[in-house]
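Input record, target 12 of the design panel.
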C-alpha cells in the first residue's frame, strides 16, 4: 500500500521544479535583455542620426552581434518560462494558464522575428558587398529603417506580453500559493505591469510622438515574481488549489 505522502510527492516536486525553471529562466532573461538593450542597443543607436549610429555600430560590430544573440536566447527562454508557468499555474485554472502561456509564446515568436531587422541593420551598416553600389546616405537611411522596424515589431509583441501579465497576475492570486496579502500585492503589481506594457504599446501606435514609458515604473511586479518563484521552488508548496 502506497502512503498519501508518497503519492503526493511527485506532484510536489513537479511544482517546485516548474517554479525553479521559471524563476531561473526569468532571472537569466533579465540579465541578458538588460545587457542587449541598455548596454548595446541604446548605447549604439543615436536617434535621428544615421551617420553617428553607423559609426558606433561599425566600431562595435562584435558587441552588436552579441546583443542580437542575447536577445535571441531571451526569446528562447521566454518559451521555456511560458511552459514552466503553465505547469505551475494550471492547477488554479488550466484554460487561463494555457492562454497566458500562449500569449507569451506569441510574444516570443514576434520578438524573434523582429530580430531579423537587427541583422539586416548590421549588414547594411557594415557595408555588405551587395549594397556597396548604393549611396551612403541611402544605405544609412535603410539601416535606420531596419532599426525602427525592430522597435515596431517589439512593440507589437509587447501587446501580447502585456496580456500575458494580466492573466498571470490573476492566476498567481487565484493559485493560493502565496498567502492572502502577498498574493494580492503580487497579483496587482503583475496586472499593473501588464497594463503598463499595453498602454505604452498602444500609445506608440496611436501617437507617433508618444514618449511616456509607464512600463519602466511597472516592472516591480516582474522582479518580485522572480524572487517569489525561486523562493517557492526552494521552500515548496502547500496544498494545490482546486482546478476550475
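The sequence produced for target 12 reads:
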Amino acid at each position: 500500500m502506497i502512503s498519501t505522502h508518497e503519492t503526493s510527492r511527485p506532484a510536489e516536486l513537479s511544482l517546485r521544479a516548474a517554479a525553479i525553471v521559471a524563476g531561473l529562466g526569468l532571472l537569466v532573461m533579465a540579465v541578458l535583455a538588460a545587457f542587449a538593450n541598455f548596454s548595446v542597443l541604446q548605447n549604439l543607436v543615436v536617434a535621428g542620426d544615421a551617420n553617428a549610429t553607423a559609426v558606433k555600430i561599425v566600431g562595435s560590430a562584435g558587441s552588436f552581434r552579441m546583443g542580437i544573440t542575447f536577445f535571441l536566447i531571451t526569446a528562447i527562454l521566454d518559451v521555456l518560462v511560458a511552459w514552466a508557468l503553465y505547469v505551475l499555474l494550471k492547477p488554479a485554472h488550466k484554460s487561463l494558464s494555457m492562454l497566458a502561456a500562449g500569449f507569451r509564446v506569441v510574444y516570443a515568436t514576434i520578438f524573434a522575428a523582429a530580430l531579423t531587422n537587427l541583422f539586416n541593420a548590421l549588414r547594411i551598416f557594415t557595408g555588405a558587398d551587395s549594397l556597396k553600389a548604393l549611396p551612403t546616405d541611402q544605405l544609412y537611411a535603410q539601416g535606420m529603417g531596419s532599426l525602427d522596424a525592430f522597435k515596431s515589431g517589439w512593440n507589437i509583441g509587447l501587446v501580447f506580453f502585456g496580456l500575458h501579465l494580466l492573466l498571470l497576475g490573476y492566476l498567481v492570486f487565484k493559485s493560493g500559493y502565496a498567502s492572502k496579502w502577498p498574493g494580492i500585492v503580487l497579483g496587482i503589481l503583475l496586472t499593473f505591469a501588464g497594463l503598463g506594457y499595453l498602454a505604452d504599446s498602444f500609445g506608440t501606435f496611436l501617437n507617433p510622438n508618444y514618449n511616456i514609458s509607464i512600463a519602466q515604473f511597472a516592472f516591480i511586479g516582474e522582479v518580485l515574481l522572480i524572487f517569489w518563484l525561486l523562493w517557492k521552488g526552494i521552500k515548496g508548496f502547500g496544498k494545490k488549489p482546486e482546478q476550475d
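The helical segments are 4-44, 50-59, 61-89, 94-125, 136-175, 180-206, 220-235.
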